[in-house]
Amino acid sequence: MPYTLQMTAYQNIINVTFVPTANYIPTEQTITPNTQVKVKVLNGMMKTMSQQQLITASKDGDAAAFGELVDQYKTALVRHCYVIVRDPDVAQDIAQDSFIAVYRYIASYDETKAKFSTWLFKIGTNNALKYISSQAKTRPFEDDEIDKVPSPHLEPSQAAEHAELHVAVQHLPARYRAVVSMYYWEGMSYAEIADILCKPDGTIKVWLLRAKESLRKELES
Amino acid sequence: MKNIDNLLQESASSFTIPVRESFTKEVIAKLPEPAPERQPTFWQRLLVVPKPALAAIALVALLGIGTSAYALGAMPFLNALFVSERVLDDHTRIVAIKRVDCSTMKDWDRAEQKETDAPDVYYYKIKQDSALTNEQVTAMVQGNCYLSQYKNFSSKTADGTYLHSTYTVATITSITPTSIAVSSDEAYGGSDKPDYSMTQNRLFTTIAPDVQVTTMQGEQLAWKDLSVGDAVRVLFSNPNPPSASIPSVDKQSVVRVVHKLPTEIRMAYDFALHNGRDYVRVTSCTTDKTGYCPQNETAVYTLPADTTAYETKTAAINAVHTAYEQSIDEKSTEPITDLLSDDLKAVNKTTVASLFCRDTYPDVMSYTVFKQEGTSVDIYAVHSFGVESEQIPQPYITYNTATKKITAVTCKSHAELYGASKPRT
């Protein structure tokens, strides 16, 4: 009954590529409510809208505006979901479902209570964790599912170090992967992560400590 | 080796996943109408019940998929019969309910799993000031029996397709001789605190010529016996194999069975909210002067001798958390001092809480708050990725009311802590 996440195409495995720094799309850490983006509105005209305006327009049923929000966050959310589920196709399905859920309930979203990204990541994280927990036997993660392409912007040794780290992260338990992703890669605070995972701040700190300890051990071994 | 913090931060920019070019278009194509601002729904209320009940409904839901043909005619007869009421000296009352053919997974009332369907009598101790009536208690037991029968549904059809079920109770929103539309609230997000619930509307336009319409007791009904507003469960087949999620309804989906549900099934859900507040389940015994003792599982709520009061949620969480953080260096059996928040010290209350032990799985963290009489007033649970097992050691925090300190954080099994309780299987 609670496990009713609708997703498809779980079985396909595709390679995951480390891409250069320049392609990194930031999350709300740099997309502030005042960030202006151009949105193609219904009459085909381009209109500059802030994130807050995009949310307001989405509440009014403006799919184009919501599409802009999707564009802003899709890379970060897919990456985050991937870190948890370790399957890129599933990660994209979960991210899509999460966006759809957000749109459906955007009228209930209260921007004074939580950042949009926090709400979005809460739904995405929970959906991803729900997917993991719904798998009777979680598919073991294969290291070679990550294609370790050296980034041209990094020294080869540094790129290899990063790739090794990312593989090590994938070996962590799901909850640790989730907090590592949110804290280090999405730049969220303890409080935000605690809100997303419905845990006290202290738990998040403990999980991060344990995650780092595990990573340290694996990288040193 | 670099500092792991620095390495993680540095690596943020070098890790991304290719996103389909059509990602945004696909999302927009699937966008539903935004829902109006919602009030808490039935399912949201349902899902704030104590976690064993959550495990029960999850299992009930998942076990709805089986392996053999969908023979609903074999549904066992269910019954819950009011037997007696006895008012005790303390003005609580004992309500006895006879259950027949009601094998359970794990009931809302924390009844143990039964190996047989033999008739038995369950006793519920109802608080003096509770508004629960004996009829409601009986209906709750009946509802529990109904819920437990979900597991008897099966999935593989004779033509090689798979049978799927709407897990939750659905309501018929429209019905014609060739179609049926149902609506159900399904919870998404955290298991204890669902972030939102979504009303799923499903329209079936293909009805099997031999569609079965039954009651849960196996009574055969006709299609014409269904009407808008009825609570039902729909079983439909399509080529998609069973999965954790309900498959989308498409043109290949064929309605095979419509299961008309009794109203009591909702009573079972609602009743769960009263568990530990308005009632506890008890068993007949000689060791208590009342003649009734708490069930093993409710014995969980019996406090150790040095803990005698209750706690507020915030203070409990603060205290427990501080204690836990200081216990992670594995000095968990050492006395821990100066851990309590000021408000906790001021109110002279006691916390008993279970946390999770190192390197154990599943991962469960819960804060349990107790009344003086030993019944749970609330459970603040964060139930992560599995079902709690009493066989797994749990951290255990003891608070000394005299010194107003948390005195120990230890890892103990449920049996070590509570003795009499047998581990659940």
Structural topology:
The complex is a heterodimer of chains A (221) and B (425).
Chain A: E1 16-17, E2 36-40, E3 46-50, H1 51-59, H2 63-85, H3 88-104, H4 116-134, E4 146-147, H5 156-170, H6 174-185, H7 190-197, H8 201-220
Helix pairs in contact in A: 1-2, 2-3, 2-4, 2-6, 3-4, 4-7, 5-8, 6-8, 7-8
Chain B: H1 4-11, H2 23-30, H3 42-46, H4 51-62, E1 79-87, E2 93-100, E3 120-126, H5 134-148, E4 162-165, E5 170-176, E6 179-189, E7 194-204, E8 207-215, E9 220-221, E10 231-238, E11 254-260, H6 264-272, E12 279-284, E13 292-294, H7 313-327, H8 342-347, E14 353-354, E15 364-370, E16 376-383, E17 394-400, E18 405-412, H9 414-418
Parallel strand pairs in B: 8-11
Antiparallel strand pairs in B: 1-2, 2-3, 3-12, 4-10, 5-6, 5-10, 6-7, 8-9, 10-11, 12-13, 14-17, 15-16, 17-18
Explain briefly what this protein structure is:
The complex is a heterodimer of chains A (221) and B (425). By secondary structure, chain A is mainly α.
Write up this protein.
- The complex is a heterodimer of chains A (221) and B (425).
- A two-stranded parallel sheet of chain A has the order 1-4. A two-stranded antiparallel sheet of chain A has the order 2-3.
- Chain A is mainly α.
- Chain A has eight helices and four strands; from the N terminus they run βββααααβαααα.
- In chain A, α6 crosses α8.
- With 425 residues, chain B is of the alpha+beta class.
- In chain B, 20% of the residues lie in helices and 29% in strands.
- Chain B is built from nine helices and 18 strands.
- In chain B, the strands form four sheets. In chain B, strands 4, 5, 6, 7, 8, 9, 10 and 11 form an eight-stranded mixed β-sheet that branches. Chain B has a five-stranded antiparallel β-sheet with strand order 1-2-3-12-13, with helices on one face. In chain B, strands 14-17-18 form a three-stranded antiparallel β-sheet.
- In chain B, α5 packs across α6.
- In chain B, 40% of the residues are buried.
- At the A-B interface, β1, α2, α3, α4 and α5 of A face α1, α2, α4, β6 and β7 of B.
